[in-house]
Design goal:
116 residues, two-stranded antiparallel sheet, 6 helices, 2 strands, globular
Amino acid sequence: MPRQSVFDMSFAKVYSALVNKAERKGRTRADVDEATSWLTGYAPDQIDALLASDATYGAFLQQAPAYNPASDLIKGKICGVQVETIEDPLMKRVRQLDKLVDELAKGRPMEKVLRK
């Protein structure tokens, strides 16, 4: 069975995995929503609507209403990959959101996660 690209996966499936990752470490879905909204410009109600749709994770990131220009401040490794060196813009967005959720799960204060 061929592997499915993360871009083609259901947004609901990927997002629930990100929320579960944060919740296992004592954070909430609201924390993940806040970080996601900061990064992508989606409002929490827009995220809810996308969760109820058949949107793909790739479409969610490509169609972000206001991708944060401060996203370039997201640095470090996630899954063994240095985020700031990723050349594919869409894969970079995937890793940036994963990095924010990883920082939440590690207990980093929201102000630092959101690069304030």
